[in-house]
Structures are given as C-alpha cells and as structure tokens.
Amino acid sequence: MADFNFQNRRDFLKYTLGSAASIYSISSLAQNDLLLEKGFTKLTILYTNDQHSRIEPFPENDAKYSGEGGFAKRASAIEKIRSEDKHVLVLDAGDIFQGTPYFNYYHGEIEYKLMSLMGYDAVTFGNHDFDMGCKNIVTQMPHATFDFINCNYNFDDTELSKNKKISPYKIYKKGPLKIGVLGVGIDLENLVEQKNIKGIIYIDPILNANKIASILKNDEKCDYVICLSHLGYRYDTNKISDILLAEKTKNIDLIIGGHTHTFIENPQVILNSESKEVQITQVGWAGIWLGKIEVFFSSYNKKNLQNNKNIKI
Predict the structure, then answer these.
(1) Residues 168-176: contacts with CB within 8 Å, 24+ apart?
(2) pLDDT digit string (tens) for 278-294?
(3) CATH number for the 33-107+116-312 domain, one of 3.30.420.140, 3.10.180.10, 3.60.21.10, 3.20.20.150?
C-alpha cells in the first residue's frame, strides 16, 4: 500500500504539483481581469461531494472512468487555482467515507489528512460518514483541520455531543466578503445501521435551513450564503431534495449537493419561496470532477456575476 505519511502541506503539494499543468487551465482571463479592474471582488468556490474514499484514480482498465479522479490530481488543481485566485473557499457535501480498502483499513484517517493538506474549509455529513458510527468520526476528527457543519442533526445523545468542530453554520471572511455556510443532512433511517446512528435525532432540514439562512443573511449580513446539502438532487416522490429545499427556503444563494451522485454541468436555477434565484449544483461522485464556481461581487451593492468552470480530474 502506498505511503501517505506526509509530514506537512508542503510535502504533499511537492508530491502532487508535477501533474498540475496537464489537468487544469485558466480561460477567460481577460474577462476576469476586466471585472477586477472595475472594482469587483472575485470569490472562487471549489467543491466536491460523495468522494467515497477514492484516494487513487480509477484503474486504467475501468470500463467507465479509466484513469479519472484521485486525490493527488485534485490537490494539484486546487493548488494551481490558489496560486492565481486570491479568495478561495473549498467545500465538500458529504460521503467522504466508504468505498475502497483505504476506508476499510484506515477508517477515514487518510481522507481527513489529505483534505486538510488540500486546505478544505468545511464539510457536511453524508450517510456513509456514519458507517463506523459516531465514535469513529470522533476518532478521526483530530486529523481534520476543516470545519464540520450541520444544522439538522441533534448529536446530544452521541459521542459527538461535546465536539466543538461541529457547528450549524460558519462564516468565512474572504477579503471584503462575508460568506455564510450552513449544512443539512438526509434522514439516516434505513441508510445506516441503527447501531451506528444511535442517539442521532433528525430534524426537518427545510425548517432549520430557513432559520440558519436568515441568521446568516439578515443578522450576520453575509454577502453570500451557501448550503452544503446531502439530501439528494431530486426524487420522484415527496422526499426532501435539493429542489424542494431551494423552493421552500429563502436567503440561500447556492446549494452544493450530494448523495444522488448527479453530474450537473451548470448549476440549475430554481426560484425560492420569495421568487428569488437559488442555484443548485453537484459534481457526481468519486472526485471525478472538481466543482468550480467564480462569483464576482461589485464594490457598491454586492450584486454578483458568475462563471461556472467544473474541472474534470
């Protein structure tokens, strides 16, 4: 098995950067420069979902995803973007764990360590993140430098109850911008063995997302509100999805989703409960894509323009 005992972020990036030029290139530089010259502030949002412990790329003989994905190539892309963009936010919408022998053997340690070296800011929980129970998450959390965000699970009767890394929301300062991030998760019933979710109380994600988004937008005066969701993109039933979440809430600007492994090339625009636009996005699974959204904020009224540039890894 490969040695992933990297001592620090510099060692990891030295290992990965050799392939950066082959997987990432900037386009529309002239347009970006013009907006920045006119006083706009650019926020670059990078995101993943449903990584499922895919540390290495798919093998070359894979029938569908030959050679695609891999943490090292993603790290190269992220580092290249950081070298060119001033305000970068890196997020994940859950199901970091489960799917390869790396998780079976290391129980999530590798995933958290490498994501920390990549500089992830925040993640939310997916159902598979509980596949070894709350106690395992507590065990692995010291390997994570990023925030864990969820507002609709009550962990009071679990090993996670006193963990200070879990918050209903976080606010990130990026230059003059305040970016609010909240997280919601799917009902874990019938998705995870009962013994592994004992004590977790599921709360209506729409109700709580509305409450937290209002705090972020109205009380905290955030310029942009992102919801990390592991509800799933859409269903043929009345099960709560990202589509329903967008329609029945307000004050959320962007929903970064997971669970359904949906590849969305360009974010879908949905009107919320106040007939204002919400964007929904998701980048499949296994780290095959790195989602990338650039949002430009004007200096005088915080209105924004947006470019979507998903990167195939």
Answers:
(1) 168/208, 168/212, 169/212, 169/215, 169/216, 170/121, 170/122, 171/216, 171/220, 171/222, 172/89, 172/121, 172/122, 174/41, 174/43, 174/87, 174/88, 174/89, 175/41, 175/86, 175/87, 176/41, 176/297, 176/299
(2) 999 999 999 999 999 99
(3) 3.60.21.10
